[in-house]
Structure formats: structure tokens, C-alpha cells
Write a structure and sequence with these properties.
Blueprint: H1 2-12, H2 21-31, H3 33-45, H4 50-75, H5 88-94, H6 96-130, H7 132-137, H8 144-148, H9 153-187, H10 192-246, H11 252-279, H12 282-287, H13 289-299, E1 304-309, H14 316-337, E2 342-349, E3 352-359, H15 371-381, E4 386-390, E5 397-404
Parallel strand pairs: 1-2
Antiparallel strand pairs: 2-3, 3-5, 4-5
Helix pairs in contact: 1-9, 2-9, 3-4, 3-6, 4-6, 6-9, 10-11, 13-14, 14-15
């Protein structure tokens, strides 16, 4: 029977040798919880006034949480994220994360410390029991210990029990270590809702950075085209125009080539100017959204009545999104609405920029039926804005865009 139990234990422990390095890492990791439990016991047993106790408990909890995170990082290679907490002592006392941490230090840490001590005690007992014949025969002949150990069934069972305990302790240590890690992630780290909220904030910040970077890149391209290619084309068109006016003795074929080149250069300048204006208009950067929208309204093929109420300049990103949203919306009205006029109202109130575009066209605009309104909605959503469309058959069509802004 002892040999059968021994063979089963050896088979179960084949995947994790009892003397592997991970076994000693688990034991060292669990043993490190013992000194961290001592301050908790000390703070609980010392009677003091309520105010100092609260302050001491707060500071001790924060210090122990930092020490526990360092323990997991150094001995387990596990990084436990910091849970969100309020500002100041009152805010931290009201924070649920502080009470979860306090529960870990007051309940989990002492229990795991007792478990670690029991594990160490079992390691010692297992070593003594499994080597009973070796160390007993090393004792002096006159020692009662040596005389009490012999080739008996009881001593054999003690040895087998010690060997089985040696095989089971690595699994017990690994289980305790995993339990401690899971409880620490749950109580010392953020909850799932807090982690998701933090993830949403990080994604919002990264998206804002991407939008700002894209806007800055558009500005750079606009400057390069305006100061580089556009100036060169303008110079070329001037030279061709000068040659067209001054050269009188060239053959008609050559003059025809000069005239065509001059006209192509002028057309290229016009297209490049429109392209530069579409990337990022200079008036938007120099004079702000009000002046830029006035330019759009003046160039629109449909008469536009514009009303703008802005107490001051907005951020460059919000101005760019508002500008291009209005520009694309007016383009869609000119193409599809068959409208005779458009009312455009822009107003900043309560941290929101509200843009209302109303036309007297045929209506029936469906955001799901084409890419125009879908693109407007995506552009507004890139800065956490919203877009709503009300367009019954027969009109009128109203597009309402709200963008966040700081006033």
C-alpha cells in the first residue's frame, strides 16, 4: 500500500518536480507576506485616538499597498495596476478602492501569512519525516532517538507520509501563490468598471492626440504647398504670360504652345489653390471660424444666411472640424437638396459648439443611404461630437452638429 501511494504521488508530480526553482520562488513569495502582516497587527492592537488612527490607517494602507505591489513585481513578475482614488484625505477615505485595500491588508494578508508559516512548518516536518532513518542513525548510539527508530511499520508510514508531503507541498505553495495573486488583483487593483473607465480615458486622449497630429500634418502640407509648389507655378505662369505678350516674331506653332502652357499653368494654380483651401484654409488659422465660415457662405452656390455667436477663438482642432463639416454639408445641399436658401447658425454655449444647418430643399436625406452624411457623422465623432439629421419628405432638412469646446 505505501509503495502504491508513492507511485501515484510521483506520477502526479511529474509535471512539476518538487525541487524545481519555481517551488522555492513560490515559498519565498508566500513567506514575504509575513513581515507585511506585522504592521497591520501592530496598528490594530495599539489603542490611540480616533483622528490619529484614521490618518495612520490611511498612510499605512497606502504604504502597505505600495509594498505589496513591489513584492508582486519583484517576486512574481506581476504588475498590479494602481486603483483610482480621490484627492486629499477625505476623498481617499470615500474611495471604494481604499476600503478594498484595507480589507486585503486586514483579512487576506494575515490569513496568507498564517498559511505561509504553516507551509514552512510543513516543509520542515516533511523533511524530518521523510529522512527519519537517515538522521536517526546519525545520532549517538546512546541517544534515545536512535533507539526509538527501527525497521517498523510505523516508521515506514512516517517516511512515506513525509515523502508524500514533500510531493504535495509544491502544489500547495503554487495554489496559495495563485490565490494571493488573484486576491491582490481584485482588492489592490482597479475593478473591471474602473479599468474600463481608465481605458476609455486613455483611448479618448490617444484619439485626441491623433486628431491633433492629423490637423498639424494638414497645416504643414498646406504651408508647403502654399510656399513651395504654388509659388513656383505662379512664377511659371508669370513668365509664360510675359513670353506670350512680348514674343511677336515666333512661329504660330510655338506661340500656340506658349498660350496653351500659360492657360494650363493658370488652371493648375486655381486647382492647387482650391486644394490648399481644402486642406486647411489660411483664413481659418489667421482670423478664426467666423471669418472662415463667412468665406464659405460667400462662395456657396446657394444663398446662405449666416449667424455666428462665438465669445472667443476655439481650439484649432474644433475649428477645423466645424469648418469642414459646414463645407461638406453645404456641398451636399448644393448637389442633392435643390434648395433655394440655407440658414446656418453657429453658437457656443455650456461647453458645446452647436451648428444648425437648415435648407428649404426637397428633404428625404437618409444618413444610411450615402457616404456624405456618414462622413459628416464620423468627422464629428472624431472629437466626441454628435450629428443629428431631420429630413422629412418635402423638406425642410435640418442638420444639427454639436462639438465639445472649452469656453
Amino acid at each position: 500500500m505505501p509503495s502504491t501511494m508513492l507511485r501515484r504521488a510521483l506520477a502526479r508530480s511529474a509535471e512539476r518536480p518538487p525541487w524545481s526553482r519555481q517551488v522555492w520562488r513560490d515559498t519565498l513569495f508566500l513567506s514575504s507576506a509575513v513581515p507585511l502582516a506585522a504592521p497591520v497587527w501592530l496598528a490594530v492592537t495599539i489603542p490611540t485616538l480616533l483622528g490619529p488612527v484614521v490618518l495612520l490607517a490611511l498612510l499605512l494602507t497606502l504604504a502597505l499597498t505600495a509594498a505589496q505591489r513591489g513584492r508582486f513585481r519583484a517576486l512574481r513578475g506581476v504588475e498590479i495596476p494602481q486603483a483610482p482614488r480621490g484627492g486629499g484625505p477625505r476623498g481617499q477615505l470615500r474611495s471604494p478602492s481604499l476600503w478594498r485595500q484595507l480589507g486585503y491588508h486586514l483579512l487576506v494578508t494575515p490569513l496568507l501569512a498564517f498559511g505561509s508559516l504553516a507551509l514552512l512548518y510543513c516543509w520542515g516536518g516533511a523533511l524530518v519525516a521523510s529522512t527519519v532513518y537517515g538522521w536517526a542513525w546519525l545520532m549517538p548510539r546512546t541517544s534515545p532517538v536512535r533507539g526509538g527508530v527501527g525497521w517498523s511499520v510505523t516508521d515506514g508510514w512516517v517516511t512515506v507520509a513525509g515523502v508524500l508531503l514533500l510531493l504535495a507541498l509544491p502544489w500547495a505553495g503554487a495554489w496559495l501563490a495563485r490565490l494571493d495573486e488573484r486576491l491582490a488583483r481584485t482588492l489592490l487593483g482597479p475593478t473591471r468598471a474602473e479599468a474600463l473607465a481608465r481605458r476609455v480615458e486613455d483611448l479618448a486622449e490617444s484619439r485626441a492626440e491623433v486628431v491633433d497630429a492629423a490637423d498639424a500634418e494638414r497645416r504643414r502640407i498646406e504651408r508647403d504647398l502654399h510656399d513651395g509648389a504654388q509659388q513656383r507655378l505662379t512664377s511659371l505662369a508669370m513668365n509664360l504670360g510675359l513670353a506670350r505678350r512680348t514674343l511677336k516674331d515666333v512661329p504660330p506653332e510655338a506661340m500656340k504652345v506658349i498660350v496653351e502652357a500659360h492657360e494650363e499653368a493658370q488652371a493648375a494654380i486655381t486647382e492647387l489653390r482650391d486644394l490648399v483651401r481644402g486642406l486647411h484654409p489660411v483664413v481659418l488659422a489667421d482670423r478664426g471660424l467666423d471669418a472662415a465660415l463667412s468665406g464659405i457662405a460667400a462662395r456657396a452656390p446657394v444663398p446662405v444666411r449666416l449667424e455666428v455667436e462665438l465669445p472667443r477663438r476655439l481650439s484649432p482642432t474644433i475649428e477645423a472640424v466645424a469648418y469642414f463639416t459646414v463645407s461638406e454639408a453645404l456641398t451636399n445641399v448644393a448637389k442633392h437638396a435643390r434648395a433655394s436658401r440655407v440658414d446656418l447658425r453657429v453658437r457656443a454655449l455650456d461647453g458645446r459648439l452647436r451648428i444648425v444647418i437648415t435648407d428649404d430643399g426637397v428633404g428625404g436625406a437618409d444618413p444610411a443611404g450615402g457616404t456624405g452624411l456618414t462622413g459628416l457623422r464620423k468627422r464629428a465623432a472624431s472629437v466626441d461630437g454628435t450629428l443629428a439629421v431631420h429630413s422629412p419628405l418635402g423638406g425642410p432638412t435640418t442638420i444639427t452638429v454639436e462639438l465639445p469646446c472649452e469656453l
